[in-house]
Automatic annotation (TrEMBL):
This is ABC transporter related. The keyword Transmembrane helix does not apply. GO terms for cellular component: plasma membrane. It comes from Catenulispora acidiphila (strain DSM 44928 / JCM 14897 / NBRC 102108 / NRRL B-24433 / ID139908). GO terms for molecular function: ATP binding; ATP hydrolysis activity. The keyword Iron does not apply. It holds the Pfam family ABC_tran. Its main location: membrane. Residues 4-229 form the ABC transporter domain. GO terms for biological process: response to antibiotic.
Amino acid sequence: MPAIEVRGLRKAYGDVTAVEDVSFEVAEGEIFGILGPNGAGKTTTVECVSGLRTPDAGEVRVLGLDPRRDREDVRQVLGVQLQESQLPGKIHVREALELYASFYRDPADVDRLLAQWELTEKAGARFGKLSGGQKQRLAVALAMVGKPRVVVLDELTTGLDPHARRTAWEMVQAVRDSGVTVLLVTHFMEEAERLCDRVAIIDAGRVVALDTPAAMAARGPAAGQRMRFRPSAPVEDADLLALPEVRSVERHGAHLEVSGTSEVIGAVTAYLARRQIIAAELRVEQSSLDDAFIALTTHATTTTHAAQTMQTAQTAQTAKES
Ligand SMILES: Nc1ncnc2c1ncn2[C@@H]1O[C@H](COP(=O)(O)OP(=O)(O)OP(=O)(O)O)[C@@H](O)[C@H]1O
């Protein structure tokens, strides 16, 4: 039985259709990523999985249970860390964990959770006084307090510095290593590439690609290789473009950037060797999940959404400064 099944999910808020038609399955023990531009419908999808929203159409199952109909049973097996923590600023860390533990039949030991998520020293601190990284560690600890078999993590690492982000990645791996299935919403391609067994890219409420990150990068519309080098003698763009493996040639000062199929490096290197030209300062790049993402998704960010995002960022900044 899959850990999560979503079939034909649809959800609208008034006139806005947030999720048009989303289907995917997550196997037990997987880290499954959901990627997509702002407003694509990611949060709405995971909120339907978590039972926080009622779908307009389609089916959602978590370990075979319906998050709305079997609400209490789902609550016992599903841990949820949502995008913005809803905790009051004055609650203490231990108090929050004990409160959440009281909702479960067989909760995890609070002291063990504090130690596991490196919060023992902060047990007596107020939530509002924690750093971003500490808040995120607490959010994961809260999601884990009911000893869930499936956990939903929504933008866990947004707003974290690179060190805290790496710590968060280790946390997610530790969660999976303990046998828990992870559904992870993220905006970071590197995060998806490092952590996820498979990812679904959602755009405008639909799944536009679903595969392992490596396969998606290799097969996407932007798939291929890119090389950048400084030739030791002049090279004509037209001569390179005449090679069937070459798709484009760009010049950046004395450097050339040549993109093409997965054979482009061999073809260009052989061409240069025949003319006894050396490719100095050679850098080679495989197409990445980032390239696939850009190629597969539209830039659907509306002005309103961008304004909201800016406002949220400003509010967060003001809150930080105060
Ligand atoms: N409670 C709500 N009421 C009305 N519209 C909403 C509500 N929640 C989301 N929407 C709209 O539904 C669409 C999808 O939003 P959702 O939050 O699911 O996207 P997302 O992919 O998670 O976006 P982001 O990456 O910005 O968090 C957006 O157009 C959003 O403005």
